[in-house]
Amino acid sequence: MNIKNKIKIIVNGKQMQITPKFSLKSLIIKLKMPLNKIAIELNKEIIDKRKISKTQLKKGDKIEIVHFIGGG
What we know:
The chain is mainly β. It has one helix spanning 24-30; strands spanning 7-11, 14-18, 38-42, 45-46, 62-67.
């Protein structure tokens, strides 16, 4: 796909280019993150994981993903 057809988003402070109509779930899959061990914030709002498939990303969106790690 041509770079002109991509939109820019920010993921954990880093710019990223995606295709239009890219879902939040597609982003999580692309980043290879385990859905059960992360929290997702989209434009300073916590996202319910049950809604990520229907959440379409838009130009300029800012996503923060926190990955939980167990330890002792």
